[in-house]
Amino acid sequence: MSLLQLEHVSKCYGRVSERVALRDVSLRMEPGEMVVVWGMRRSGRSTLLRIASGVETPDAGVVRFEGRDLYARHGERLGDGIGYCRRTFASSEGQLVLDHLIIGLLARGLALPQAAGRARAALERVGIGYCAALRPAQLDCAEAVRAAIARALTFAPKLLLIDEPTIGVDLLARDGILTLLRSLAQEGIAILASTGESPSLSGGRALMLSEGELHGGRPRELATVVPLRRSA
Questions:
Q1: Superfamily of domain 1-81+160-232
Q2: pTM (predicted TM-score)
Q3: What torsion, rounded to 10 degrees, do the Cα atoms 207, 213, 215, 220 define?
Q4: Strand pairing report for 190-195 and 34-39
Q5: What's the confidence (pLDDT) of residue 91?
Q6: Coil, helix or strand at residue 50
Q7: What DSSP string describes 186-197?
Q8: Which of 41, 134, 167, 170 pairs as cysteine with 138 (C-beta 3.0–4.6 A)?
Q9: What is the pLDDT of residues 152-185, one digit of tens each?
């Protein structure tokens, strides 16, 4: 049984002028696997991640997480076991970076000392423990990405989804983020990432989205930097 399975998923936007975001997309991911989806702007890569995380519903098809329909998990919180990385930090969720990691844990019933301890541990795990007492506006792009990953890690996900983790990040800091994602995959967390900057992410399995269709290949510029692991 695959950890994540998308079966013939389709999604369209707009009523007057319909735009196809995803067209009959199927994808399987296993625990500890890293998959990078490359696509140009409006290719559907962000939609793919939102649907895979349960943030958005497909128009057609089925999304299964641990063998169960992600949208029919009655009695469970939507997306349990799935970490969707948001790089935005709403002021209503707290003033400091640590606050933003704690608030979601408090909402799930953890006591403040437990929530704070888990949040600090997550920040240390991604290498920015020193940012706990900073305001989100004080973070640079790379730190903001790491903080988003840390926030998702506080919920101990089995699957982590991150949209364009290197966009806006200094070239020198990109390798560190990729190394972090690889290390999380080595720990058993499946990673599904998207990118519109083809040379920026390497490692794992590479797929390409074009006009809403998912292909098991890669653009030419990715050929020398991203190995494609063939399924058995």
A1: P-loop containing nucleotide triphosphate hydrolases (3.40.50.300)
A2: 0.86
A3: -70
A4: parallel
A5: 86
A6: helix
A7: HTT-EEEEEESS
A8: 134
A9: 999 999 999 999 998 889 988 999 999 999 999 9
Segments making up each domain of the chain, as ranges = 1-81+160-232, 93-156
pLDDT for 20-31, tens place per residue? 899 999 999 999
Q: Rounded to whole angstroms, how far apart are CA atoms 73 and 183?
A: 30
Q: What is the DSSP letter of 221?
A: G
Cα–Cα dist 162/171, whole Å: 18
Length of the chain, please?
A: 232
d(CA 152, CA 100): 11
Q: Which carries the bigger pLDDT value, residue 99 or residue 92?
A: 99
Please list the alpha-helical segments (H only) found in the chain: 45-53, 97-107, 112-125, 141-153, 171-186
Cα–Cα nearest to 135, from 80, 69, 91, 180: 91
